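Extended Data, panel c. Modelled sequence:
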Amino acid sequence: MAKAEFVNKMFNDIAPKYDLLNDVLSVGTHRLWKKKFINFALKQKPNSALDCATGTGDIAFKLKESISGKVVGIDFSSGMIEYANERAKTETQKVEFKVADIQKLPFADKEFDITTISFGIRNVENLGLGLSELGRVSNGVYILEFGQPKNGLYKKAYFNMLKMYVPVFGLISKRKDAYEYLIASSETFPSAEKFVDIMKANMNFKNYGCIPVFGGIAYIYFANNEG
């Protein structure tokens, strides 16, 4: 099974448990990380935003609280978008959700002030193409993604702890392989300066950088023309 097909089916299957999964992977702190991430992206003072790999829509709804213009959330998984649309019925913030592929975004050049993506870029089959598209449709790109702590002991302890949860999450979600994939992809995905170099090779902005979160379990990445 191709990666795109596997990832699509996986997220369709685990959509109702997605927030719980992020709680486990982030040791219960992903909501705090996302708050920091959103506040950082909002420093550009955007009037519109595209949230990619939007999942249940939590980032998109939070962005809309501070953005007067349109906020759109897209996801490759129709199951995730269905879940986000159900959630939208009870939210006061109006966000449009649609199924779309980051590798071929159905939007005009620079249609949005910013694009955001949290915990989704490592699942893109063609990473360079996905980053290029994020940069094409916006004036600033902000990414939150799991990585690897630079401290070797901390890194080993963290990933060993995650692997202990595999049987538990398998019972909860009925998709043990999904949890194993998400751990493995976090453990091997290029992070910190390596990922910044990949961004530079596939985007056309003046400024690039990364900020470690929780000792490097995750990183906030940015590319913009500010300053």
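The mean pLDDT is 88. This feature is highlighted in the accompanying rendering.
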